[in-house]
Amino acid sequence: MSYTIPLVNDLHTYFPEILYGAPNRFPTVQSLLEYIRQEVRVHHDLFSNSQRNYVNTHAAPPPQNNNVRFTFNFDEPVRNVQNEEMLDRPLTDIMNLLQYVMQPPPPNFMEPVIVRPTLQQIAANSTIVDVASINGACAICQENMDNTEQIRRLNRCHHMFHDDCIGTWLQQNVHCPTCRHDIRV
Question: Using H for helix, E for strand and C for coil, what is the string for the chain?
Fold first, then answer.
């Protein structure tokens, strides 16, 4: 199993008890840090594990050299926290965050958000016109416009459309279908 969120995927892989353990498994930050330290010591301290494995399979210990290497003392208590009170705080905030992150996204998570103008914005920024002769077609339905139909003109760009066509268009969009001008401005 793999998660798309890297933090959750790492917790699943390296520290599963944090995600799948009992809800009150880590009542304090100190208990969580102790668990992490234990897991790192047992499973992820590659140098110590390799050295132990080598010693167990060979009679003599590995040769020592003077190369500098960085090691962590996993037996030292964890007290490098600036605020000591934080170690005794319950982990409810962290656990609540992890539960939230683990939830699947809602079904419409990636659907576009519809932005539409209000009726007041449409009324203020467009006009029903009475034109004796119109040469052209409605850019939305591609039908010819004639003087027997209601024609709506956008005030800013002066593009004209059938009133029903632009009404339907503006239920899903705030831009002029011809020039992309935002009619709310």
Answer: CCCCCHHHHHHHHHCHHHHHCCCCCCCCHHHHHHHHHHHHHHHHCHHHHHHHHHHHHCCCCCCCCCCCCCCCCCCCCCCCCCCHHHHHCCCHHHHHHHHHHHCCCCCCCCCCCCCCCCHHHHHHHEEEECCCCCCCECCCCCCECCCCCCEEEECCCCCEEEHHHHHHHCCCCCECCCCCCECCC
